[in-house]
Structures are given as C-alpha cells and as structure tokens.
Amino acid sequence: MPKKTEKPKFRENERIVENKDLTIGEALIPVFALVAMLAYNVYVFGDDALSGSNQFILLMGGAVAAIVGIFNKVSYKQMIAEVAENVRSTTGALLILLMVGALSGTWLVSGIIPAMIYYGLQILNPTIFLAASVIICAIISIATGSSWTTAATVGIALIGIGDALGISLGMTAGAVLSGAYFGDKMSPLSDTTNLAPAMAGGDLFSHIRYMTYTTVPTIVVTLIVFIILGFTIDTSGVADTSSLLENIGATFNINGWLFLVPLVVILLIVKKAPPLMALLIGTLLGGVFALIFQPDIVANIGGGGTLNFETGYKGILNAITVDTNIATDDPALNDLFSSGGMSGMLGTIWLIVCAMVFGGIMDGIGALERITESLLKLAKTTFGLFASTVGSCLALNVTASDQYLAIVVPGKMFAKAYKERGLAPENLSRSLEDSGTVTSVLVPWNTCGAYHSGVLGVGVGEYAMYAVFNWLSPFMTLLFAAFRIKIKQLATSNSPSS
C-alpha cells in the first residue's frame, strides 16, 4: 500500500501487554491521578503549564503507573522496555519537529512566509477566510496524505494572514486543522488511513469509500460553521491592511519567485520523497533564497552591516537554530515576523518524550489492555459496540498520548467482536479513524496536540472548540450507529440485532 506522511511510522505489529492480575480499578488509578494533577497544574500555571510543569506531571503520572505495576509484580525491566519502544517510535516525529523549526526560520528570513501573508491579505477576504482555509488545507492534505506537513507549511502562513486580519488565532488554527485532518483521513497516502483497515482486517479503498458517509457530512457542517463565523466576527485588521502591506513591502523584497520553494516542497511530498528530505531541501532552498532576495536581513541577523560569507553563514545558521526576530515599523508585524528555529521546538519535543514515558509504562503494566477490555464488556448492542470503540480510542488518546496506539489497541481488541456481530471490518476501521485519528489533536499532551500547538504557535485550549471537524467526527459516527445508517454487514452473516 502507498504510504506517505511525515508523521512517525505506525506500529502495525505493536504488542499489547496483557496482565490478568491487574484490575480495572488499578488500571484507572494512574489515569485519575494524571488528570487530577494536570488539572491542578493548569489551574496554577495557566498558559505557562506547557513550559515545563505539565511535562513533569506526565512523568509523575508514569511514576504512579509504575507503583501500580510494582504492586502487581511487573518488572522494572518490562516497564522500561515499553517506554523505550514508545520513545523510539516517536524518533521520526522528533526529527521532523526540529526540521520544521529550521524550515520556519529560513522561510521567514527569505521572505516566503511574509510573501504568503502579503498576497494573502490581498486575495483572502476576511469574510471567507476561515472557510477558504479549511478548503485549502483539505486539498493539500489529500495530496500529501499529511496533516503535519499541511500545518507546518500552508498552516503557518494562514495563521499569519489571519493574525494580520485581526481574526482569532484559535479560529484560524481550528480551520487549518479541520481541513488538514479531513484530507489526512481521506488520502490513501496517509499512514493512519492505511493502518485502520489493516487493524480491522479490511481493504484500504473500501475503507476510504466507507468513510465518506460520515466524513463528508462532517466537513460540510464544518464549512457551514466557518462561513457563519466569517459573517459574524469583527475583523478589525481590515482597516489596517494597507499599512500592513506597506510595512511588509518596505521590510522584505516580495516577489513571486519566493513561491518556488514551497512549490518544490509540496512537489517532493506528492512524489513520495521522504518527509525529512523534503523539509531539509525546503530549509536549504529557503536559506539560498534568503541570501538572494533578503541580503540585508541575513547580514543583520548574522551580526554585520553588509552581507559577506561570515555574516551570511551566521545569519542562515541563526535563522535555522535559534530565535529570530525581524523588526518592522508595525508592532503587530514584529510579533508576527519571529521564529524560534530548531530551539523553539524543544519544548514540544520535551512534552512528547514525557508523554511517551507515561504511555509506555501504562502499556507495560497492562493497564491499556485492561481499560480497553472493560470497555468491550459494555458493548451489549451494535450501538454499544460502536460507542465502546469510540470511547476506547478517546481514552487511549488521553492516556497513551499516541494516535497510533489509539488505532492499534482498539483495532486489535475489537476486530473479533465486530466479526462475531456479523459486521464488516469497514465499520471498525471507520470508527477508529473518526475517533482515534482526528481527536488526537485535541489532547495537549498527545503527540499530535503537542506538535500542532508547537508548529502553529496556538495552544490546544485556544483552538479546540474551533477544530469543528475534529470533535464532531466521533459524534457523527455515533449518530450513524444509533440510527443504523450505512452499517455494513458481512456478506456471509445474518444481520445482528441492535
């Protein structure tokens, strides 16, 4: 099967640790402890909780899980082995985060992001901006099979345009992620779209066709919501557009040639080039274009008045690795034209590693298997089976902090139950995607939530309610299950009672 995305490679053969001695009450102790500690920590630190304290709380949650494991005679070696496997599986994501930071730095100093904002301010009317953002991100994500690359490229530019127009960052991020995850779900190049039918025992393209029944209505509702928002929001930035354009033009050399770089990156991804290679090439091309089109800016960042080999080298390397700020005559643009480079991604990387420690220990002591097993026992009807699947995926996104485990674990646990009920595997694979893939971005300590929050520079709490597609998808699946709409039966089985 074709697979292309910058997200970490999924673990189709992931081993689910079983511990028959562990009770459901014991399995839930670390979950309740983590939720309580995180809630209090966010109450105390507010928006600064992700600066480090939440990361430590995740480690404390892992410690609670380890204590439960020790009382159930789970060896320290086994727990550490599962942690190591979890962290190892995120290696690709961590490297991509670093490269995204590097790319954003060179795309800023080269004028690529400012050019996107400059032309976007002239093309995207504030009234249709949010709906247009959904459509743009959906198209790119379908073509690339990657919500992560979509957010890291066009998503960053749309955030800048929305900010300049005076539109809430949360709204813009919600529109970006709604479109990006719609495309990710429907693309045969997406790893999660390949993983879900593999876990359920179905076929890729049958899975995609079956997903359209719930996914198309969800994206339609999402677009309607953003169209309504576009007509109701106060876009105070509209009156300042001329001033913003003048300041951008005075600071950067804006021209159409700058768009060659993002076009090359998108082409590489579509042509199935490795994501890290595509981002690296985008970073290097950004640096070359910076030297050609923005020599004064590069020299200034490099600590000199004129561009030479030393100031050029230092300027590009600084843009790639550390904080970069480009001053303009507009304070709003000063905040907009800043990048943390690779160092700006370290907080997100720290969060992901700590989340993987918690998820690894939870898996190592058998808690993830026990929680999913208990949910399965509640499934007495067809609707109950769907609801248990959705609940399991949501719980694993919160506890395991990994969307792949949120597909693999329920997929393995529920496949037999769906077959025994005479339900085709497309029912399970669709439910896994509708609840496991898309909701991962709504959990701050999940790899997806941490990634998108770090890349877009918008907290999960700010965009969650506006990520309409993401939180509406599981409800749509449950609605279809409740009214038995498009519930496909196995060809050789009688229809089960609901």
Entry keywords:
498 residues, 24 helices, globular, single chain, mainly alpha
The gyration radius over C-alpha positions equals 23 Å
Quote the distance from N terminus to C terminus. Answer: 34 Å
H-E string: HHHHHHHHHHHHHHHEHEHHHHHHHH
| Strand arrangement in the largest pleated sheet | 1-2
Task: Write down how many β-strands occur, each being a DSSP E stretch of 2 or more residues.
Answer: 2
Helical residue percent band: over 70%
- Provide the domain count: 2
Count of alpha/pi helices? 24
Major sheet, described briefly? 2 strands, antiparallel
Low-confidence stretches: 1-14, 493-498
Percent strand? under 5%
If you average the pLDDT, what whole number results? 83
Q: Which structural category fits the helices and strands?
A: mainly alpha
What general form does the structure show?
Answer: globular
Transmembrane segments: 21-43, 55-72, 93-117, 123-144, 210-231, 252-270, 276-293, 349-368, 463-483
Pfam families: Na_H_antiporter
Domain Na+/H+ antiporter NhaC-like C-terminal: 179-483
InterPro entries: Na/H_antiport_NhaC (IPR004770), Na/H_Antiport_NhaC-like_C (IPR018461), NhaC_Na-H+_Antiporter (IPR052180)
